[in-house]
Specification:
Arc Repressor Mutant, subunit A; Diphtheria Toxin Repressor, domain 2; 7 helices; 6% strand; binds manganese (II) ion
Length: 141
């Protein structure tokens, strides 16, 4: 397995976030934030360890290896790109988060690049974004 699977990506993403937020990632916290059983976390953590993405250290708990951190950073960057894009359109924050979690594993690098460029374009040209929003309002009226 060269690329982590979708659910492996979710775990690495969440473990990385927990470590950034709290300084550690406990099985119980991973389980509750991904809404899965602790036994599933334990087995995925073991698998991710075998694949070289993380280690368990006696006093620190779970730590990502360089390889795990690199993958987590890539996942995080992708999430941020999608978040930059979707936040342009005044969508509900929770809906955005939910939708991003749903699609982020399924986008090819090319498609992601288009969305990233589109986000940059609108950020750099707010008048164009306004035009687009106006046109939507007109179509909805
Ligand atoms: Mn995500």
């Amino acid at each position: 397995m060269s690329e982590p699977s979708q659910s492996a990506e979710d775990y690495l993403e969440r473990i990385h976030e927990l470590i950034e937020e709290k300084g550690y990632a406990r099985v119980v916290d991973i389980a509750s934030s991904l809404d899965v059983k602790q036994a599933s976390v334990t087995s995925m953590v073991q698998k991710l360890g075998e694949l070289g993405y993380l280690n368990y250290e006696k006093y620190r708990g779970l730590v990502l290896t360089d390889k795990g951190r690199a993958v987590a950073a890539k996942i995080q960057k992708r999430h941020e790109t999608l978040s930059r894009f979707f936040s342009l359109f005044e969508l509900d924050k929770q809906v955005q988060q939910h939708d991003i979690e749903g699609i982020e594993h399924h986008l090819s690098p090319d498609t992601l690049e288009v969305l990233s460029d589109l986000a940059s374009f609108f950020e750099e040209n707010p008048a164009e974004l306004e035009k687009f929003k106006k046109s939507r309002r007109k179509n909805q009226a």
